[in-house]
Amino acid sequence: MSQFVASLFKKYKACGDKGFTMMENPGYISGSFDRLHHPSDDDDDDMVDIAGATLDFSSSDDVPPLSSGNRGMTTSRAAGMNGNGPSKLVDPLEDPVPGLGTYEDFNTIDWVREKSKDRDRHREITKKSRQSTVALLHSVSDAFSGWLLMLLVGLMSGALAGGIDIAAHWLTDMKDGVCLIGFWFNHEHCCWTSNETTFQERDRCPQWQSWGELITGTSEGAFAYVVNYLMYILWALLFSFLAVILVRAFAPYACGSGIPEIKTILSGFIIRGYLGKWTLIIKTITLVLAVSSGLSLGKEGPLVHVACCCANILCHLFTKYRKNEAKRREVLSAAAAVGVSVAFGAPIGGVLFSLEEVSYYFPLKTLWRSFFAALVAAFTLRSINPFGNSRLVLFYVEFHAPWHLVELAPFILLGIFGGLWGALFIRANIAWCKIRKSTRLGHYPVIEVLVVAALTALVAYPNSYTRMSGAELISELFNDCSLLDSSQLCGYKQPANTSETGVGNSLADRPAGEGLYTALWQLALALVFKMMITVITFGMKVPSGLFIPSMAVGAIAGRLLGVGMEQLAYYNHDSFIFKGWCSPGADCITPGLYAMVGAAACLGGVTRMTVSLVVIMFELTGGLEYIVPLMAATMTSKWVADAFGREGIYEAHIRLNGYPFLEPKEEFDHSSLAVDVMRPRRSDPALAVLTQDGMTVGEVEALVESTHYSGFPVVVSPESQRLVGFVLRRDLLISIDNARKRQEGVVSASTVVFTEHALAQAADAPPPLRLRGIMDLSPFTVTDHTPMDITVDIFRKLGLRQCLVTHNGRLLGIITKKDILKHMAQIANRDPDSILFN
């Protein structure tokens, strides 16, 4: 039954909202070597992995060899394991045992062992480089491979992002009409070459016809409107149906934002296939379809997932990264920066986003390479020029009027709104996702997506601000009205003297006209609709980002407040608030700036980003003078949202899905000790251990088969319980299986020896099996009276799989990451059994 449930999980579990209820497990993982290829049988007591691409354990190319480093992880030659004399240590690059030192799906990596392997490899290459020119060239190519990989990641991610932008723009316009001179042109490109456009109707040209005009022959009248309405809904349903069907059929991991899972992957967990080639292909295609369907979602978050897929796939071209999970995660951290770089055209903001929001381990070398990869990706996207405006984003703006100190009050007010909206959204979305999980709604993801898409299209079409895409809406709201604008948001009453202009091309503050009042009512309705529909959209089984919907909500609120401040200043320029800096005929208030600040505030309230968010918004506008308003609104938003809960939306979804992720930002302030958390507890059976020289192969196999642990401490004897080392169940079974197949004399009665020298045996006894090479001789230990806050810090900063608890050198028990997470859940009055999906 457990295998059946696990197979269902591997096929359908993948995304933000749909987690499986986690069940408690007494220990690590059980099963014979033949079952190692079924990682879904695992219930790793430590952790749940989320790592990269689909790796085939049967191929030695994708299997990292066991390190011969200073932590005792050397592999013994097949000839040396039969006990005929001392074992001969082997160079892992020459004679690796396939599968040894690798990790199962839904498991965790050993950061310390992986770093040790890389140091040993680097020392070996440096040593050989002094001996020959060929080895020196190999050393140089090894050092350069990281930069070459970053170049390839940047090029591939930038090219894919450009293609996604172009395709999404085209399909979005296809819902409204078609270009007669070429159906592959979007609306803007179709009218570029037309000489029949007018200033007032610059988006209309004979070459582009709406569906109503194409079918009825006229663009006016109720029948043409109904035809356009129906075609809009039909296209939205078609795009959303294709998106959810492709995800469900080919790549279940391609749904959602991907950032919660990326955060968990970067913390050291493995989900094979989550960053694989099929996920990349399907996510790229369905992201275009989902964005084009008009659903309240964005492509910015999923672009981080796409960039990480590119990085993971390209890692297989380089042995250094293919065979070392820790090194691969350094590349994935850089890829997260690339994803934000191509999403917002903000290379520096992308690097800071990776550092602040997603990365678990971010050394200085990764910072440099992230910057280089983000630069390459931004340059590639700029070369493609997907929006035709020589910019990297659709809503790039430049403001010219300065802001004034008095305006800090409304900016802080926007920060308060952003914090309240962020806290409300997180609670509402998590509640809706729990409903989806616990009711029959979760069994019908296709119907759910179609219903939400139909509802969105039905309500959105009559309102021009909800009908347009999220990026176009933000661009419209960020826009600073000038003499050449014909937008409804610029529907002011024209001054008698048209020479009264503000700074640059912007007009002086003017009284609101009929068009502006209409636009404000439409924006108010759009605000309510966006706030409600985004709650139920995020987490569905299609690629869905949250950046654009959150920014759209904030931008609408900011624009409404900005217009209100503008009119207040126009009619009360003699009051004490405005007197002295806002004279009649001056351009005092910039509503577009308020929209930008509101967008940053709402996005910060939802994600709890601070520094990276301010830099991203600064790179969007190109104005240094607006950093202070952005900082004020962002910090206010974070403080207000934190007052209702310290979790951002991604952390909330990590907890919802039960990913065993130790949040670095979460403080542990309980006074418990290691002995309170370790296992075995008083009512549990004794800890299963191996002895260093007193067990046979049959006894070891029986112990493994009868327990559910993925690792075993090695002690001197059952009586003394003096700790010798720690051996992983996977390495133990692979070594025994390899010895039985490749060495003579290894039988069930053979003694398993973890010491350097085997004890004297009878002449007719089978040769011992020497397994000291797979044992970790320096496992991390704490005493039973170590405070848990220190233990938690050790797990966070070293990325440990487990930690052994001793008293005066005697083994008492073990603490795994799952034990810590369960303990923290109990302290927070949460269900401890929600940790780890089974």
Automatic annotation (TrEMBL):
Residues 60-77 have a biased composition (Polar residues). The keyword Transmembrane applies. It comes from Sparus aurata (Gilthead sea bream). Its main location: membrane. It is found in: Endosome membrane; Membrane. The chain crosses the membrane at residues 147-171, 229-254, 275-297, 303-319, 331-355, 405-430, 442-461, 519-540, 546-565. One of its GO terms (cellular component) is endosome membrane. This is Chloride channel protein. Keywords: CBS domain, Chloride, Endosome, Ion transport, Membrane, Transmembrane, Transmembrane helix, Transport. The keyword Transmembrane helix applies. GO terms for molecular function: voltage-gated chloride channel activity. It is a multi-pass membrane protein. Belongs to the chloride channel (TC 2.A.49) family. The gene is CLCN5. Residues 60-91 are annotated as: Disordered. InterPro entries: CBS_dom (IPR000644), CBS_dom_sf (IPR046342), Cl-channel_core (IPR014743), ClC (IPR001807). Residues 678-742, 775-832 form the CBS domain. PANTHER family: CHLORIDE CHANNEL PROTEIN, H(+)_CL(-) EXCHANGE TRANSPORTER 5.
